[in-house]
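Hi again,

Forgot to attach this to my earlier email, sorry! This is the prediction with zinc ion bound. I've pasted everything inline since the attachment limit keeps bouncing my files.
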Amino acid sequence: MSDEPLEIVIPMDLRFKWSAGPHLGHFLRELREGNIVANRCPECGRLQLPPTPVCGRCHVAMGTDWVPLSTKGTVISYSFVVDPMYDAGIGDMRPVPYTIAAIVLDGGPDVAFFHRLEEKDPEKVRVGMRVEAVFRPPGKRQGLMEDIIHFRTID
Amino acid sequence: MGDRVAIMGVGQTDHRYMRPDVNHEEMIHEAVRLALEDAGLTIRDIDTVIFDNMDLFEGHYLADAMTVDGAGMYLKPGLKMNTGGTSGGTAVATGWQHVASGLFETALVVGWQKQDASPSIGSLVTAREPLYDRELAAGAVGIFATMGLQYMQETGCREEHAALARVIMADNARKNPHAHLKLEITVEDVLASRVLVWPVRLLHMSPTSCGACALVLGSEARARKGPKTPVWIRDLETAHREVSVFRGGCVEPRPQVSAIEVAAGRLYRRNGITDPAGQIDVWELYTPSSWALFHWMELFGICEKGQAWRLVEKEAIRLDGPIPIEPSGGVVSTNPIGASGVIRVAEAALQIRKEAGERQVAKDVKTAVATAWGAGSWIVMFYLTREA
Ligand SMILES: [Zn+2]
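Structure tokens for the complex follow:
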């Protein structure tokens, strides 16, 4: 009888369901139409992106004061993903490299939108660069963040 | 403020990448046994047990129920804590609250993680809201990348400085027999390691570790009868950020509000701390990436904004420096996540007891700050003292 350590592999394939709710649900339906919307706190007036049910600071219901934002904006931070990461949507590695960025959309000065940039050249990406959302064609959108392919550089 | 609470006993495993020689319960029991011995107590002397790990990382729930015997929870009151990266800090805070309330004289706190059980990134991606966040999340690495990039853009800090911070932590880890990674590395080695999410390189990130750490907390009356110098948990503080900041990798337009600054401000005001760098003798910060260190140093008020990289450049944070940080080698050297928050407090306590061996800092340690940090900018911080 050997006493080598015994390790047993246990695979699991599980499926989960998530309710978007009225606030994020509205955001995703608008996204499907090619729009990006935030909601405004009735107490402190700040925007929430994505729309949220409650303002954490005021602890009041955010409600449905929808504020359409431009699909153009300015990069405030970015990075380059070089090492493959799991894509939780498909359970596999994503193709690399890709550029991630926090973008302040025009009309939304107090919120940042997080997405990918088309530009992958580290020499060409900078804070302050102007970018615009590139949506999938109207019939191909599903109300997912993936409805935006990436943000392209504009002048 | 509640009754005085002291750390009476400290125990931890030797943390490793893999522990195929033991199961979860056996590994937990190693730390529990050591902490009880250190406190000069048996499990009969323990009034309550506070238990933590990050659920799902081992691929199953009810880890507490499956390890009752090894953890020493049999027929005892107790709680299981699970707050992500801060789980260990939350467990210590809960143990403190149980004893400080006067309802319990002793509490055993047990934190652990066995990351060889599953690919932890698989669990970690589920920590992001699935409809808005998850597709874009680059895991914890992405958060530290945006931190690092923002810091370089706003200060004179260069990649070399983050690499030097990592080298200093590695130098400390080699003096810590419990540390997981005991790397012999130079700044050049760090800069040559592969990029994960720029500017975060492989050597900047904490490893996935297996390990457990346990503390015995006691009331003043009990602690003064123990064999070891009591280390007082003089105060603690917690604060959380709102969910909208978690989204987008902790990036928001200025002005930003930091949970760390809020928590530290409250704790310092209560304890008359006006000069943290001068009044705190040693820091065990929860720094999962060397790129986070600069932000932590500034948010905890160790130095002015934009100056942390200069202190690192002067190597002021070394064991023999004026502001020793992460003498244990820190989370970048050892990260059994559920144990990591407990280890910070344990290591700070060993520094105050002057029982930290080769990793003992040169200063006469009378005060220490230990913290735990987790995604969502969740912070738990402890102020430890030698005097009651
Ligand atoms: Zn508000």
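Chain B touches chain A at residues 20-21, 59, 121-122, 125-126, 128, 130-139, 141-142, 145-146, 149-150, 153, 194-199, 202, 242-244, 247-249, 251-253 (CB under 8 Å). The two ends of chain B are 14 Å apart (CA to CA).

That should be everything now.

G.
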